[in-house]
Amino acid sequence: MRLPFDQAVTRHGETVLRVCRAVLGPGPDADDAWSETFLAALKTWPDLPEETNTEAWLVRVARRKAIDVVRARARHATPSDDLPERVSSLGTPGDDEHGVWAAVAGLPERQRLAIAYHYLGGLPHTETAAIIGSSPDAVRRAASDGIRRLRQTYHDGEHTEGAPR
Q1: What is the pTM for the complete model shown?
Q2: Interatomic CA distance for residues 110 and 131, integer angstroms
Q3: Per-domain residue ranges of the chain
Q4: For 127-145, how does the pLDDT look when each residue is reduced to its tens digit (9 = 90+)?
């Protein structure tokens, strides 16, 4: 005959906690794994066959719950007080090393807005047109003209200050 659940917790609780602590070390993670073990066991308890070795079954559940905690730890970032100093290969955001932002800023307003909203903001020409108060065809044309002008600037060597030659 199987024990009532509360008696199983009393009888096997220490063993389950030892298993959790063996995998996770002492502390709140082991306590959480212990709790999770008995929550999972409570859900399955009514369907557990009579001949089941309760202690072995609870130890197996505890081991799996402890491993779940170990996996969860691996997925979370580890806080650190000291951050390594590394130089980005992409440069500093906002730097205009190649003069691109200066070249875009030098475009006529409609071209600049069409490029900003469509190419940089990812909006379709219809939404860009609604924002700047124009038609989609006019926005498409302004964006095309702006891109052509930027290409000419960079292909013809008319770079702004600091741009590569």
Answers
A1: 0.47
A2: 11
A3: 1-87, 91-158
A4: 889 988 999 999 999 999 9
